[in-house]
TrEMBL record:
<feature type="domain" description="EAL">
    <location>
        <begin position="24"/>
        <end position="278"/>
    </location>
</feature>
<protein>
    <submittedName>
        <fullName>EAL domain-containing protein</fullName>
    </submittedName>
</protein>
Length: 280
């Protein structure tokens, strides 16, 4: 069977293998090829100050430029990358590429923004993240204090002791840490108190129905107030309308991301946004 052949070998589908399992194997084989052939890309989405309207950061978002299928979204391949362990080399590539790009923009005088990189829970378990981050910073020359790692609540909840030890070491490097998709995981409040977190990212599901949903306005207001009283910055994800931005401004939210300002874009298009800002 495929298993006996080992990783990296050609896979022969076993009889009786489910359609889902075949698809996973195909995606996994494709991902190995993508990594080897340089088919992975980073897109960048601006993080914008609510008060000034200026771009203060970027989030790096992974894409797979498949020669046959075109641009593949991370929702389709991150889960396979995680279960196969490929997330470790992929995550290492993402960290280095994001730091190299951010440092190129700094050197070109395009601003001193932060670069935010998503880190998956399995990357914690599989690789020495402190070493991987240290290498990316050393190779790129990008300052640790401008790099932000985005970690989901579930990663904090799954193995809190390991996560605390790791995040403390990363924080000691000078990095910023943010909690992604905040409000959708468990034990948020207990973890927020214990972990060396700098930023809460309000999940886009709480922003989407503002201003129609009174509940979502109440939840978002509460997250902003709680974050601020704990000394954290708060960013709102998925901001699509001027009404949503007005609401966030009234509540004193620090920054936002969303289609209202820009979709995630390739590096050359992001650079145009930075140059326009410099000119304007
Ligand atoms: P995330 O980190 O929460 O990223 C935000 C997602 O919301 C992105 O989807 C972005 O394109 C989308 N988005 C941004 N603004 C809006 C908006 O106004 N409206 C709507 N409807 N969506 C908006 P994307 O790029 O498809 O990424 C999905 C998820 O995949 C990410 O969620 C993150 O969890 C994961 N991901 C992406 N890149 C990486 C990576 O390099 N490593 C890891 N481990 N995970 C990644
Ligand atoms: Mg994120
Ligand atoms: Mg810190
Ligand atoms: Mg999110």
């Amino acid at each position: 069977g495929a298993k006996a052949l080992g990783r990296g070998a050609w896979c022969f589908y076993e009889e009786g293998m489910t359609q889902g399992a075949r698809e996973r194997l195909a995606v996994e084989a494709g991902l190995r090829r993508a990594l080897a052939n340089g088919e992975l890309r980073l897109y960048y989405q601006p993080q914008v100050s609510v008060a000034s309207g200026r771009i203060v950061g970027a989030e790096a978002l992974l894409r797979w430029q498949d020669p046959q299928e075109g641009l593949v979204s991370p929702a389709r391949f991150i889960p396979v990358a995680e279960s196969s362990g490929l997330i470790a080399p992929i995550g290492q590539w993402v960290l280095l590429e994001a730091c190299l790009q951010a440092q190129r923009w700094r050197s070109a005088g395009l601003g001193s923004m932060t670069m935010a990189v998503n880190v998956s829970p399995r990357q914690f378990a599989l690789s020495d993240l402190v070493a991987v981050v240290g290498d990316a910073l050393a190779q790129s020359g990008f300052p640790a204090t401008s790099l932000e790692l985005e970690i989901t609540e579930s990663a904090l909840a799954e193995r809190p002791e390991q996560a605390l030890a790791l995040l403390t070491k990363l924080g000691d490097l000078g990095l910023r840490l943010s909690v992604d998709d905040f409000g959708t995981g468990y034990s948020s409040l207990a973890h927020i108190k214990r972990f060396p977190i700098d930023v809460l990212k309000i999940d886009q599901s709480f922003i989407r129905e503002i201003p129609e949903s009174g509940e979502d306005m109440a939840i978002s207001s509460a997250i902003i107030a709680m974050g601020h009283s704990l000394g954290l910055a708060v960013l709102a994800e998925g901001v699509e309308t001027p009404a949503q931005l007005d609401f966030l401004r009234q509540r004193g939210c620090d920054s936002y991301q969303g289609y209202l300002r820009s979709r995630p874009v390739p590096p050359d298009a992001f650079e145009v946004l930075l140059r326009d800002q410099l000119a304007g």
